Amino acid sequence: VQSVLVATVLGVLALVAGLVLGWPVLVLLSIIFTVVQVVMLAARAAVQRNDAKMSEKLAAKEIRRRGA
Question: pLDDT tens digit string along 18-67?
Fold first, then answer.
């Protein structure tokens, strides 16, 4: 997760540099890169939440199976 955050910060810094230097292509690419990084962070969080829910369900199912 830390590497994704670092990459996102670098993307934002590139965006600011592009704005300061007046390079529209760098600004556009930085915006796209930063949006992709944020989507990846959101997807990773969603997958982790889903994994936790599934492991709880599987554990409960295993307990019911052993108890029955």
Answer: 889 998 998 898 889 888 888 988 999 999 999 999 999 999 999 999 98
What's the token pair of residue 54?
């599934």
CB neighbour list of residue 26: distance below 8 Å, 6 or more residues apart:
14, 15, 17, 18
Query: How crowded is residue 34: how many other Cβ atoms within 10 Å of its Cβ?
Result: 19
How many whole angstroms separate alpha carbon 30 and alpha carbon 27? 5
Residue 57, token pair as written in the block: 């369900």
- Residue 57, φ and ψ in degrees, nearest 5: -65, -45
What's this model's pTM, rounded to 2 decimal places?
0.66
Distance CA 46, CA 26 (A): 30
| Domain range list for the chain | 2-67
